[in-house]
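Lay summary

Proteins are chains of building blocks that fold into shapes. Our project writes down both the chain and a compact code for its shape. Here are two examples, one after the other.
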Amino acid sequence: MTAGAAVSPTDARRALRNVSALTLSTVIARGLLFLWQLVLARFLGEAGYGIYGAIASFIAIGAAFTNFGTGAIVVREVARQPQRGGDYLGTTLLLRSGMALLAWLLLNIAAPFAGFDPDFRNLLALASISLLVDALGNLCFEQLLAQERMRSTSLVTVLHMLLLLAAAALALAGGYGLPGLYVATILAGLARAAMLWGLVLQGGLRPKPMRRDLLRSLLIDSLPLAITSLLSLAWVHADKLMTIRLLGEAQNGWLTAAFVIVTGMIELLGTTVLTSLFPMMSRASGPAVHSIVSRLAWFTLLASLPLTLLLSLFAPEITVPLFGETFLPAAGVLRILVWFGMLRLVADVFIQALITSNRQRRMLVVRVAGLSLNIALNALLLPRLGVNGAALASLGSVLLVLVMLLRSTPAAAWRPLIKRSLPLLALTLVLAAWMIAVSQLLSPLAAMVTGMLLYLAGLSRILDGGDRALLVSLCQTLPGPFRPRATRNVSDQASGNGQDAAEDAVNAR
């Protein structure tokens, strides 16, 4: 399979530009957020950080209910039919507002039944106001994604994160604790919503009156996605909710610390790319989708494997300097949980392929199986193994999910990945042995640096011509000062093409 065999050069270049814009904003925004998480963990301690992680899990599940699976459908349909953007914007505005209010009520009803104390419930009631605020911004974010205005959304993402961190820092410095932190989150969310609405209105899009036929169609089509999304987030966050109830706040703080690291890896290497490629995948069909899925899963594995190996082998050396000595037990969780992160990155590629193929019902079956196994394993392992049992439960459930996804996907999309993974597995074993030996003889830092150099050298024998061509195309999307010299002439010639000029005009809208 050659790069671009089933995807036009125009779509490929536009998609790579979108990936570059979103990746840059994600690196900046998530990098700032990650640094903030480190400060917050030290400020709150293990118990306070455990409470923060449990409330974040509630909010994540509530956000899935608020979205009700309509986000992916809106991006898919508006990407195909831009003239319907106003209809979708007006209809989802009313739908999401109502769902956000209902989600707030359900979360605050569920917390007492789950056995959480009044202090926790009061914090949850305040924090969950952000569900409505975020919903107002996400409406416009989806419209901008469908228009592939990734540069605009990337700028808003970075500005929102800067505002959030500034407001949160002021709240904590003023001694307002977690309540002040959640008020700061709400205010920053309002600023984000205002910026996104400004971009949408500036582009000439206006919300039209709600259409009952469109609302009905959205609810019917999104119901499997809504249930799937709820199950997915329940699958990811069930371990923290069960850990805080069975093992206490401190151990949940250790789990949250490991989860923050793994989530950062997932968002940087997976979510960003999948979001930017979703419009192109929505327009593709048949062999084109299989080509994109196969190549994307392969590059996801290549990018995540070395980071997974580093975090697993050197978890204590990474966790303690970041979070402090009291979070040393989080290293054991991280050793296991990071492999869950890598497998989930690959699984997410095939999940998105099911969405673009309108196979939401199959996704529902996969999610139910994953959540059921995760809850069962947590109930079995947490009392016996402590917080490490939560990580093992996540790993076991994602293995089941990945197997089911491969069985649900045409072989053309995953068989090349399996075949090419064998030499990658051999390289991984050599790399692990090398880093263990160097860390014992010299230092963990020397093992990390030399290990990554060895990995890059090994990739030269694994990548094929299609992989190299795609990497060259990606380099051409970078700004001039950051672009490798070998690709500058090629990119400069391509930029003179009238077709590229038209693409730049579209992306600059």
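And here is the second example, written the same way.
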Amino acid sequence: MRYDREYSTIKSVRQTLCKDVQHKKLTGVCAGIAKYYDLPRLAVRIAAITALIMIPVVTGVAYVVASMLLPNSKYY
């Protein structure tokens, strides 16, 4: 199964890791990671929930820090 990106396919645009505010559920961190690595958003969210169940303190702290440090996406 190939994930069809909803974003620009232009390769000359510099890609940076940022929160995706258009497809966010909570803060947009998982959607931003999925966009940056070209993965399905659902898979990244399931991995985040699994990590939260397995190692809750580390995952929770990492998510909060990422939501504070990652900039919002400038492009919608």
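What can we say about the second shape? Residues 16-61 form one domain.
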